[in-house]
């Protein structure tokens, strides 16, 4: 697979929003809007757990896939309030977001638990969208690259190179999430590229003595997330290393989400003006 064939993905993270009825209506509206277009990118919607069945039914047979916003890494057991990977596969959920900064910030998610969840997702044939990103303090202390490299390598610990293929990474600077502040497109592209080189470096150094690992970083979709909206999406998605977007606020209505889908469609078709560095 070459970088030209990397998937372009637009994923909506609905966070803790929408009752079952509201989620179903939004999913149906997205499906209806997408039905008017061909050659779309991969479109993913991630409703709250409670609305997954309604959303799965609404998107069935369409271009839209469904993801969960989190999961536990145990297959079952005494973990009150948690959702296990087989429960998601049982519903036919395709994607799962892992390590979102809100999970890291408010719910004790660590690099170690992200790694366990990533391995559980792969084991259960779920496509993990692994979020990494620096806080404002870290950026201002010039620690962005250290944090990103560390989060990416920690997420991949003990993941065999043969298993990497389905993984999606998302660069989500914490200071840009839900704040209206977008990372400058050139900088988003630089960090997305850093994620790829970190993946390559990780597999080259873990295959000591073996022939250089294939450049797997170039094969993996890397998304940008953080206040993506209609007014900035084209510039961000025009960048070489940004394969799509993970979107919060602007995924909550079809009016806001459709322009992002259509921008990703243009990227997929190669018709966004090239903003490569
Ligand atoms: C997110 O929650 O992953 C996100 C990127 O949110 P927003 O688009 O609202 O910044």
Summarize the topology:
Elements: E1 9-13, H1 20-34, E2 42-46, H2 52-59, E3 64-68, H3 85-91, E4 95-98, H4 101-106, H5 111-123, E5 127-132, H6 136-140, H7 144-156, E6 168-171, H8 185-206, E7 222-225, H9 230-237, E8 244-247, H10 254-269
Helix pairs in contact: 1-2, 1-10, 5-7, 7-8, 9-10
This protein binds phosphoenolpyruvate.
Overview of the molecule:
The chain is an alpha/beta fold and 277 residues long. The chain has a single domain (9-269), classed as Aldolase class I (TIM Barrel), CATH 3.20.20.70. The chain is 41% helix and 13% strand. The protein contains ten helices and eight strands. It has helices at residues 20-34, 52-59, 85-91, 101-106, 111-123, 136-140, 144-156, 185-206, 230-237, 254-269, and strands at residues 9-13, 42-46, 64-68, 95-98, 127-132, 168-171, 222-225, 244-247. An eight-stranded parallel β-barrel has the order 1-2-3-4-5-6-7-8, surrounded by seven helices. Helix 1 (20-34) runs parallel beside helix 2 (52-59) and helix 9 runs parallel beside helix 10. The mean pLDDT is 94. Phosphoenolpyruvate is lined by residues 13, 172, 177-178, 225-228, 246-250.
List keywords for this structure.
277 residues, 8-stranded parallel beta barrel, binds phosphoenolpyruvate, single chain, alpha/beta, TIM Barrel
Largest sheet: 8 strands, parallel, barrel
- Might you state the CATH topology name? TIM Barrel
Q: Could you tell me the radius of gyration in angstroms?
A: 18 Å
N- and C-termini, Cα separation: 22 Å
Bound molecules: phosphoenolpyruvate
CATH C-level category? Alpha Beta
Helix content: 40-55%
Strand order of the largest sheet: 1-2-3-4-5-6-7-8
> What is the CATH architecture annotation?
Alpha-Beta Barrel
User: How many strand segments?
Assistant: 8
Q: Number of helix segments?
A: 10
Strand % is 5-15%
N-to-C SSE series? EHEHEHEHHEHHEHEHEH
Per CATH, the superfamily is Aldolase class I
- The stretches of 5 or more residues where confidence is low (pLDDT under 50) are none
How many discrete structural domains? 1
């Amino acid at each position: 697979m070459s970088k030209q064939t990397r998937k372009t993905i637009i994923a909506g993270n609905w966070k803790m929003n929408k009752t079952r009825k509201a989620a179903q209506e939004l999913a149906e509206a997205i499906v209806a809007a997408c039905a008017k277009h061909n050659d779309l990118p991969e479109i993913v919607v991630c409703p709250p757990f409670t609305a997954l069945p309604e959303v799965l039914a609404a998107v069935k047979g369409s271009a839209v896939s469904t993801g969960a916003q989190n999961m536990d890494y145990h297959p079952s057991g005494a973990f009150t309030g948690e959702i296990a990977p087989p429960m998601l596969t049982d519903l036919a959920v395709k994607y799962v977001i892992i390590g979102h900064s809100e999970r890291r910030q408010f719910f004790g998610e660590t690099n170690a638990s992200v790694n366990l969840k990533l391995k559980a997702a792969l084991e259960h044939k779920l496509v993990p969208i692994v979020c990494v990103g620096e806080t404002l303090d870290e950026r201002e202390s010039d620690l962005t690259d250290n944090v990103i490299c560390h989060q990416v390598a920690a997420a991949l610990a003990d993941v065999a190179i043969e298993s990497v293929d389905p993984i999606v990474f998302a660069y989500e600077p914490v200071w840009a999430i839900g704040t209206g502040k977008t990372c400058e497109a050139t900088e988003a592209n630089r960090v997305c590229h850093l994620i790829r080189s970190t993946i390559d470096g990780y597999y080259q150094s873990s295959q000591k003595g073996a022939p250089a690992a294939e450049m797997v970083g170039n094969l993996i979709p890397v998304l940008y997330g953080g206040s993506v909206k209609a007014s900035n999406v084209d510039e961000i998605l025009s960048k070489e290393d940004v394969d799509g977007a993970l979107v919060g606020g602007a995924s909550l209505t079809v009016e806001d989400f459709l322009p992002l889908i259509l921008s990703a469609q243009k990227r997929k078709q190669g018709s966004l003006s090239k903003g490569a560095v």
